[in-house]
Write a sequence for this structure.
């Protein structure tokens, strides 16, 4: 983006409320990417004649958790509405949603941007039902579409931010922050690939300094954070080029093509839709007792933002590390439990081991916290051994690798593998002198000013020690013996 | 033995069954024989469930026999009683066409709560009765399966939309039948066929399994020979249903008259219901009935429901608006008629074009228009505001009186085809019945005599919310001193 235009972006996020049963019937909510089609369907969610919706209270509670976590004003009376359009994945010919008087409105959340922290306003949070899923197939030259209603009637939460994001980075961070909150309050696993969370940015640009809004385009079909960033970047560039060339942005819905890295106008949305909203007569207004809402508010866990502040203050973490650790509740929980269990290791050392070596192993293997074969106690024991100098960093990594694959006790692993760090000064002095004697040229060159050769000699000593020597002590001894030599 | 069984009211029939005077199979067979004899002419039933009815009757007889052996007095309230069910109510395993081509071959796998409660109480379902398509009409002329003929004069309509149920009960092809009332569809056919027709309070009877027309107006009701029979059915099928969020968990118990005397009962007579266009014979019949209620001790006072004249336009915005969404599910995708096309949108259009009749299409168009962006406030939004005023009219009047008495319809049964060319004329048929639906209050129509052509005249009584039993009690007192309700058409 050149400096001539300012991006103006809002997010519309749909999150499945992962309740046991659907929004308006008793059908179970199943993983629609795994299960057989049409196994979780009843006359209600299949839109059979004469069927009526009944509100799932658990879904309302889940929705309230999110709305409260987003600092929204809760409407104690909210109204369900019918949104009408024809499509084969919408069995009733209308979706039950909320229109006027949504469940909650006027909230906010904090995000990080290049310019510092930003408070992003949430316009509204409302409950609706999901549609079914269409699969278009071609068999023996015949084209047809298959309808799977497993997803039909699954509770969805729609979260709409104000268009207050002004960079791709802000868009990404806002999406991550929302995902983090959804996961913290335990309503959604945050999986974009499976469509459990769907993020649709609406994007416009305006000349820097202008306060008017440009015409916006909405992007759908983003099933990863990477595609969110790519699509946003692409669309901003497209709009800028268009405007620079004297053209005008058209209000439209665009579909992101991840393979080609481009957006395409979605044909069905070219015509302006009139959804003919009106209050759902089959459902009386949703009236919430204030006491119940307060109870849900009190039951909320510490949220990422607050936890981050606390981690910075209490554990002395850098903002970046605190962010990384609190992003997922399970990670932050593991961190705090490890800090509590540790005897000698301090909070910073533990943060380094968590976000460094452990995250590395987890990313490589695609494992999440829940899938680890060890817990806070073992991680604390390992960090304690490192902090006490009983094992060096390389040895510690090896221990972690074993823990990761097999589990077990760090002290036993260290013993079994003979990874105890050697700090015995007599032994270290002997190895150092042996190395200098067998590498006289390098020693002389180092003394002549070729400083990097110190690392070579250090490496030779560590090799002799089988990697277990205390690296700081080795360096000290090496420099002492070399300087003696120089005199 | 079975010669006169069809002449018994539901209450009498149940007494006979309990006393072992005849069996449910005999009773059911008597009705099936009459259906076979007269239905081809009347077209009251669209589907006759002879086989399952006889099976159910045999099962009921077994239960009676078993209870007799074990000397147990505990028997389901309606054991062995045959009934007819309007075709907009789902009964598992039976067709539910709703009088429409689009559901010609549709057989639901579920049963409406109202019907299920009756089945649990032991009823025998004789079959499904004719209706205007999706209950939209006042004559059954909008049925895709032909008009039903009024048993009192077969050249006339039985009223609608529950015309099939009304004709069936009037012609003694069923002791009692379920109907539905969205704008008068129980009360108007009851008036045209000389029956007691109860429109229940909105929220009193579950709508689960009732194929929706206007969801905020739809009610399940009863067409019966007298108020006592209607009460029997209401008692069993009413009450909270966890599957219908608009049913009421606790219904208030309202005062009602007991026995013959109506002493202390205050009857409001609304001037807005005695207007130009009301036939003199109907007016005379209704006024005479009110005098009889007064003779029983009631006191009639003039009242006013000032927003009555807006009921018709308000209704014809709200009901079609709700219908336009309710009927969107009939798209040819999962069930019902499909006209296969290569293009999806074309398939929707052709299927709906072929499946819906002209009145249904008209209402879908009116409703879609009223809900369109830019028109919503002027039509639907405005209609909801006026609806609130109409409801307030009733609230105000029921502070002063216990019930309202008025005509059910402007005239007695009209000839088939009389309103053929003008939908507005047909809409005016419901002018006295629509307000109760908009307000959600209960209504009961009872026969109050006959006009010069021997056609029944209907008295309509309206009560405050959940005063269904009060209306039935007043009617029962009236029916103790009159015998209009005992008249049967000569077939």
């Amino acid at each position: 983006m050149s400096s001539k235009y300012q991006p103006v972006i809002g997010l519309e996020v749909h999150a499945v409320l992962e309740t046991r049963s659907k929004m308006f019937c008793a059908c179970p909510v199943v993983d629609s990417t795994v299960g057989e089609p049409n196994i979780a369907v009843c006359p209600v969610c299949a839109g059979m004649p004469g069927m009526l919706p009944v509100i799932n209270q658990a879904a309302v509670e889940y929705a309230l958790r999110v709305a409260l976590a987003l600092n929204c004003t809760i409407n104690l009376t909210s109204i369900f509405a019918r949104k009408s359009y024809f499509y084969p994945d919408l069995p009733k010919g209308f979706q039950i949603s909320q229109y006027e008087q949504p469940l909650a409105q006027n909230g906010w959340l904090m995000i990080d941007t290049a310019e510092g922290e930003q408070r992003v306003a949430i316009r509204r949070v409302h409950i609706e039902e999901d549609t079914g899923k269409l699969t278009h197939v071609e068999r023996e030259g015949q084209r047809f579409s298959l309808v799977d209603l497993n997803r039909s009637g699954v509770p969805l939460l729609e979260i709409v931010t104000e268009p207050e994001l002004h960079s791709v980075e802000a868009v990404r961070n806002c999406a991550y922050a929302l995902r983090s909150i959804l996961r913290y309050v335990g309503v959604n696993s945050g999986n974009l690939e499976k469509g459990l969370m769907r993020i649709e940015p609406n994007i416009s640009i305006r000349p820097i300094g202008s306060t008017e809004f440009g015409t916006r385009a909405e992007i759908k079909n983003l099933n990863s954070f990477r595609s969110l960033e790519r699509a946003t970047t692409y669309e901003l560039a497209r709009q800028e080029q268009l405007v620079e060339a004297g053209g005008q942005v058209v209000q439209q819905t665009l579909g992101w093509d991840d393979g080609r890295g481009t957006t395409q106008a979605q044909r069905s949305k070219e015509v302006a839709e009139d959804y003919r909203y009106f209050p759902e007569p089959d459902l009386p207004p949703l009236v919430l007792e204030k006491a119940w809402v307060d109870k849900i508010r009190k039951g909320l866990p510490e949220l990422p933002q607050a936890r981050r502040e606390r981690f910075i203050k209490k554990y002395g973490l850098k903002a970046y590390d605190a962010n990384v650790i609190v992003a997922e509740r399970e990670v932050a929980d593991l961190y705090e439990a490890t800090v509590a269990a540790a005897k000698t290791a301090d909070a910073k050392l533990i943060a380094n081991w968590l976000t460094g070596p452990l995250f590395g192993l987890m990313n490589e293997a695609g494992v999440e916290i829940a899938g680890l074969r060890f817990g806070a106690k073992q991680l604390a024991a390992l960090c304690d051994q490192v902090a006490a100098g009983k094992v060096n960093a390389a040895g510690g990594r090896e221990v972690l690798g074993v823990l990761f694959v097999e589990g077990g006790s760090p002290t036993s692993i260290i013993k079994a593998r003979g990874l105890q760090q050697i700090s015995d000064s007599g032994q270290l002095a002997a190895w150092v002198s042996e190395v200098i004697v067998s590498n006289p040229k390098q020693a002389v060159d180092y003394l002549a000013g070729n400083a990097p050769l110190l690392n070579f000699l250090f490496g030779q000593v560590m090799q002799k020690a089988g990697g277990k020597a205390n690296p700081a002590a080795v360096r000290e001894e090496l420099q002492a013996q070399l300087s003696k030599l120089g005199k | 033995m079975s010669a006169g069984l069809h002449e018994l009211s539901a209450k009498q029939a149940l007494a006979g069954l309990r006393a072992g005077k005849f069996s449910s199979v005999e009773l059911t067979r008597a009705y099936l024989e009459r259906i076979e004899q007269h239905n081809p002419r009347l077209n009251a039933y669209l589907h006759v469930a002879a086989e399952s009815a006889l099976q159910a009757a045999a099962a009921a007889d077994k239960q009676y026999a078993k209870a007799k052996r074990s000397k147990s007095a505990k028997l389901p309230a309606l054991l062995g009683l045959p009934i007819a069910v309007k075709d907009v109510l789902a009964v598992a395993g039976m067709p539910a066409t709703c009088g429409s081509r689009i559901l010609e071959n549709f057989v639901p796998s579920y049963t409406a709560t109202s019907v299920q409660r009756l089945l649990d109480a032991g009823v025998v379902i004789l079959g499904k009765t004719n209706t205007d398509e999706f209950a939209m009409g006042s004559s059954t002329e909008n049925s895709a399966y032909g008009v039903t003929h009024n048993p009192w004069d077969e050249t006339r309509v039985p009223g609608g939309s529950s015309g099939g149920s009304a004709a069936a009960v009037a012609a003694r092809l069923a002791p009692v039948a379920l109907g539905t009332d969205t704008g008068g569809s129980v009360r108007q056919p009851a008036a045209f066929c000389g029956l007691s027709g109860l429109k229940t309070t909105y929220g009193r009877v579950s709508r689960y399994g009732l194929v929706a027309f206007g969801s905020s107006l739809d009610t399940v009701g009863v067409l019966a020979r007298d108020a006592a029979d209607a009460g029997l059915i209401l008692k069993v099928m009413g009450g909270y249903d966890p599957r219908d969020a608009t049913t009421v968990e606790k219904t208030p118990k309202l005062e009602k008259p007991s026995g013959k005397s109506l002493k202390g009962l205050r009857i409001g007579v609304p001037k807005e219901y005695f207007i130009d266009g009301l036939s003199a014979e109907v007016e005379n019949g209704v006024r005479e009935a009110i005098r009889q209620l007064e003779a029983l001790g009631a006191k009639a006072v003039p009242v006013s429901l000032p927003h009555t004249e807006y009921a018709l336009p308000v209704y014809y915005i709200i009901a079609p608006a709700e219908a336009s969404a309710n009927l969107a599910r009939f798209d040819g995708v999962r069930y019902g008629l499909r006209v296969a096309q290569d293009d999806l949108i074309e398939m929707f259009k052709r299927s709906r074009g072929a499946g819906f009749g002209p009145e249904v299409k008209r209402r879908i168009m009116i409703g879609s228009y009223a809900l369109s962006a830019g028109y919503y406030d002027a039509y639907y939004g405005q209609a909801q505001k006026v609806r609130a005023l109409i409801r307030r009219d009733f609230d105000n009047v029921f502070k002063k009186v216990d019930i309202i008495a008025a005509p059910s319809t402007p005239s007695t049964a009209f000839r088939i085809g009389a309103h053929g060319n003008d939908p507005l004329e047909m809409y005016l048929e419901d002018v006295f019945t629509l307000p109760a639906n908009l307000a959600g209050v209960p209504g009961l129509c009872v026969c109050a005599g006959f006009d010069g052509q021997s056609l029944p005249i209907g008295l309509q009584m309206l009560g405050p919310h959940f005063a269904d039993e009060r209306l039935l009690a007043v009617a029962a007192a009236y029916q103790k001193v009159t015998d209009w309700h005992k008249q049967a058409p000569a077939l």
About this structure: Residues 2-307+389-486 of chain B form a domain with the Amidase signature (AS) enzymes fold (CATH 3.90.1300.10). The radius of gyration of chain B is 21 Å.
